[in-house]
Amino acid sequence: MESLITVLPYLIGVALVAVVIVLGIGVFSMGRSNAFNARYGNLLMRARVGLQAVAIVLLALFAYLTSQ
């Protein structure tokens, strides 16, 4: 259990960086309004929502484990 508490902050950081990267790519492609956005814009925003869900679950798990 201690090793999980040690690793979770790094996993949370990776998840948050992934969210920022996907969000940045999505916003940049929407600003350009090109064929890339038409093809991948919706997929990028779905990926962002999924990554945010993973980050929230990891944060909740970390809070639960450290509160005990």
Textual characterization of the structure:
The chain has about 70 residues and is mainly alpha-helical. It is about 95% helix and about 0% strand. The chain has two helices and no strands. It has helices spanning about 1-30, 35-65. α1 (about 1-30) runs antiparallel to α2.
How many helices in DSSP terms?
2
Q: Share of helix among residues? A: over 70%
Strand content: under 5%
Biggest β-sheet, characterized?
none
Global geometry:
elongated
End-to-end distance? 11 Å
Mean pLDDT: 92
Order of helices and strands: HH
What's the short version?
This protein is mostly helical and about 70 residues long. It has helices at about 1-30, 35-65. The chain has two helices and no strands.
Strand-helix topology:
Layout: H1 2-32, H2 35-67
Give structural attributes.
68 residues; mainly alpha; 2 helices; 0% strand
